[in-house]
Amino acid sequence: MDVWTSQGNPRQQMAAALACIVIGVVLAIGFRDFGNSGANAFAGFLLGLLLLVIGVAGFLVCGEQTVIVDPRTRQVTIEDTNRFHSKKRLISFSDITGIHIGYLGKRSTYVTRYYLILKLRNGENYTLFAPGRFYEGSSDRAVVMGWKKRLEDYLK
């Protein structure tokens, strides 16, 4: 079996953060005169501020995540790098007791991201292919089922 390497898409992370910033600014400016317009305008202003804060935070922590599954060393390596820090997590195959599929979003809106949840021997659940990292294929449940099967085959 070969080493399986997968990277998140920082460009999509950046685009989502910038979209939140732009929409937040538009809403905050558009509803800035909430004193004369009532509660709905105040809610629009606060929503704009919230989106702006989320967008700026997302922009600042945007980074690259790489997942490496190496059957020779029998471990999963997760390298996470952003503007402020870089961290590396090693998970031994022997520490993985189960693999499940999780999802973020609503099926009815067709905006769903799937990911793997590793159940570890110490009771921890670790998210692999995190939805905010925009891995290629993460919006297709069949693709993520393939990831699960592939990882289960490596664990045997």
Question: If strands are numbered along the chain, what order do they take across the biggest sheet?
Answer: 1-2-3-4
Radius of gyration equals 19 Å
CATH class of the largest domain: Mainly Beta
Kindly report the average pLDDT value. 90
Number of strands: 7
Helix percent band: 40-55%
Largest sheet features: 4 strands, antiparallel
Q: Which outline best applies?
A: elongated
- The CATH level-2 architecture of the largest domain is identified as Roll
Spans where pLDDT lies below 50 across 5 or more residues? none
Protein structure class: alpha+beta
CATH topology of the largest domain: PH-domain like
The first-to-last residue Cα distance is: 12 Å
Features:
156 residues; alpha+beta; PH-domain like; 2 domains; 4-stranded antiparallel sheet; 3-stranded antiparallel sheet; elongated
Could you characterize what this model shows?
With 156 residues, this protein is α+β, with helices and mostly antiparallel strands. The protein folds into 2 domains: 4-8 and 64-155, PH-domain like; 13-61. It is 40% helix and 33% strand. The chain has 4 helices and 7 strands, in the order E-H-H-H-E-E-E-E-E-E-H. The chain has helices spanning 10-30, 34-37, 39-61, 141-155; strands at 4-7, 63-70, 75-82, 86-92, 96-106, 111-120, 125-128. A 4-stranded antiparallel sheet has the order 1-2-3-4, with no helix packed on it. The radius of gyration is 19 Å and the shape is elongated. It starts with a strand and ends with a helix. The mean pLDDT is 90.
